[in-house]
């Protein structure tokens, strides 16, 4: 379980590249879906997860389509509905489950829950609960990349609600003024907890905020992993070329409540059905069949393999011990005070 | 040649930038203009725009960008133009920087310089001492030098530290105090208080600009035959309780002094620590001299009434000495 997955070297230029990309995208989207289903609908209800559960069901195309383009020098700052970014970057499923269960083998050794995790060896920065706080931090990571003469880009993830916060505007402004290599990736899932977009902002699109910072902004079908991937390529190329930050607004829908305890009664009836028809995994599979990148029987096989992978990961995580209370005071500082 | 407190900070910053190419500065008006107090005058010309970054008026971005750069292995030194504005970057400091190591094992080597303190008729937003907001945030280190020697030694230690450090520099001391500094390189360790005047009858425990008030009071009391010890905390977090308690154990009387307001101030924590550790040695109640619980007023008679001074300290000390 400790082995770190290599970053899949993807290129859609070479022959068969698109088919290979499709299979990789489908695998990570399906793995994220299965893991989060297991977490929200089984382990949480069994009382094995002691804290909050915030899933990205229906939004999987966004972390997958973007994070697959991140190279080793790039820095990712994923938000709480971006589990696939961690999987792609090399955090094994078992460690994510251990994190949720408060076990010592989670990336934060029981200090944190859900998607609040990071590992600078993988250039992965942890979010904090005050969303948008990672936006200026992403600018700082990008500043460091340029300072160090690296060609890396910071991938800054957030939702629509985060764009109402001052930190978001300060971070985006600073990145724009300094022309820093940041790709700002918004999952606009139309609800921030119970607050709909119309009560969140007066403009129609998050992308409308781009021009105020002289920053290119693109609206993307966030439920089409290929569209997200293609837009991210444009954004990353812009940022890597030293032209400054780029904003991607990925339109999607949160197919759950805010968290596992929220039944989302405030969402108008019909919206879940309507967006359910645009499910990113179903659409990816349909496209793969249409293009001849996969045969009909392959998807059931993949799902079975993923179920097995998650079964194994759950078993591994459940064997991980709880942290020793004697470690409570460790790591507040580099050296004990 | 005597070096001012401000020049000592400059020297510390300069030497660390010469020593380590990962050290860089960012803040408002620090580059071309040289900083509101001219602490960084000449740095932009010498080190260039890559290492002396003029930022928008944007404390959350200044601190957030420092965190990101620190995570990536650089050693940013951020300037808050006035300590009063640090609240605009508060969440980044207390929720992001302070908790990274504990939560996910990430180092945030970052210094936030905060010019603090009153006595310059700056009014409510250019005079505050907000150190306690940070002292009660585990994961941060907080220093508040009183002398030019410590100002230089502590800024160097803060820059080399792998944890985030909030560095409170008192504006009233910038050009008011000076001393001869060693020609050779030195640092002052974070986490160690210092007995700056030895005495037998009473301990005054303080930090920052109030160290000078305490020394003035000690001198006056000495003329009356009292032997007063003065402890300069130098670092507020982690707090050197050992040096504080050793002093009180020796003198049996404690007077706690700070320029910050009263409720929730450092004196409360010191009093509790003294009670817990050396209660049996106390011969008198623990007393405080602090600013009252008000914003910092602008007009001179009001600000004079607000700030602790040697007379207020002497009055309380006399009461304690008679007790």
Describe this structure in words.
The complex is a heterodimer of chains A (337) and B (323). Chain A has 337 residues and is α/β, with parallel strands linked by helices. Chain A has one domain: Thiamin diphosphate (ThDP)-binding fold, Pyr/PP domains (Rossmann fold), CATH 3.40.50.970. In chain A, 40% of the residues lie in helices and 9% in strands. Chain A has eleven helices and seven strands. In chain A, helix 8 (225-240) links the parallel strand 6 and strand 7. In chain A, helix 1 (17-43) packs antiparallel against helix 10, helix 2 packs parallel to helix 8 and helix 5 runs parallel beside helix 6 (166-177). The longest helix of chain A has 27 residues, at 17-43. Chain A is globular and about 50 Å long. The two termini of chain A are 34 Å apart. Residues 1-15 of chain A have low confidence and may be disordered. Chain B has 323 residues and is an alpha/beta fold. Chain B folds into two domains: 2-180, Thiamin diphosphate (ThDP)-binding fold, Pyr/PP domains (Rossmann fold, 3-Layer(aba) Sandwich); 194-322, Rossmann fold. Chain B is built from twelve helices and 14 strands. Chain B has helices at 5-19, 43-47, 59-71, 90-96, 100-104, 131-135, 148-160, 210-223, 241-251, 266-278, 300-306, 310-322, and strands at 2-4, 23-27, 52-54, 75-79, 111-116, 141-143, 165-170, 178-180, 194-197, 202-206, 228-232, 235-237, 254-261, 287-291. A seven-stranded mixed sheet of chain B has the order 3-2-4-5-7-6-12, with helices on both faces. In chain B, helix 3 packs parallel to helix 4 (90-96), helix 8 packs across helix 12 (310-322) and helix 9 (241-251) crosses helix 10 (266-278). The radius of gyration of chain B is 19 Å and the shape is globular. The mean pLDDT of chain B is 98. Chain A binds chain B through residues 75, 107-109, 111-112, 116-120, 125-126, 128-130, 133, 135-145, 147-148, 154, 166-167, 170-171, 173-174, 177-178, 331-334, 337, and chain B through 24, 50, 53, 55-56, 58-61, 63-74, 76, 91-92, 95-96, 99-107, 138-139, 141, 161-163, 191, 238.
